[in-house]
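Hi V.,

Quick status before I head out on leave. The structure for the redesign project is tokenized and pasted below; the design run finished overnight.
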């Protein structure tokens, strides 16, 4: 009597092993895709929250009389006193939503815009971003990622 496996037993074991290996690969691939999707969404929200915080901090230092919105809420422009001494030079800051991107630029007054736009956030929805009621600025940012929409809203009262 010979010891060993028959050809049929070897083929069945290879088939079963292959199916288990293929299923494991599919599960790993699915987990990796899910992880990457969640990471991208978390990065987008982190970027949006950071942009919202930067705008809020600058608006808090704004001179209320200089705040102006335009382009149906897509642009916000205001002045701050960088050294907080109440005398020139002042800095003018502009935030503008262009398509799905929120950009920022500034200039020291008097003078022209010396720097190109800096991208603060992307994947924005087409809703208005800024509104000014004379006492408070409301910033509304809706970001889109795939089928998900996230809306961040804050209100800032300039102190000056």
């Amino acid at each position: 009597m010979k010891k060993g496996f028959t050809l049929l037993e070897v083929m069945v074991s290879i088939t079963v092993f292959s199916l288990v290996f293929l299923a494991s690969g599919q599960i790993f691939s699915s987990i990796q895709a899910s992880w990457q999707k969640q990471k991208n969404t978390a990065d987008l929200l982190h970027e949006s929250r950071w942009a919202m915080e930067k705008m809020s901090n600058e608006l808090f230092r704004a001179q209320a009389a200089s705040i102006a919105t335009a382009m149906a809420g897509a642009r916000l422009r205001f002045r701050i006193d960088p050294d907080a001494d109440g005398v020139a030079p002042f800095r003018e800051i502009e935030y503008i939503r262009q398509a799905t991107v929120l950009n920022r630029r500034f200039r020291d007054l008097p003078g022209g815009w010396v720097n190109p736009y800096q991208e603060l956030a992307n994947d924005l929805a087409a809703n208005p971003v800024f509104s000014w009621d004379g006492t408070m600025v409301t910033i509304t940012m809706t970001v889109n990622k795939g089928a998900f929409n996230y809306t961040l809203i804050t209100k800032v009262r300039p102190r000056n």
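Above is the designed sequence. The first strand starts at residue 68 and ends at 70.

G. will cover questions while I'm gone.

Best,
W.
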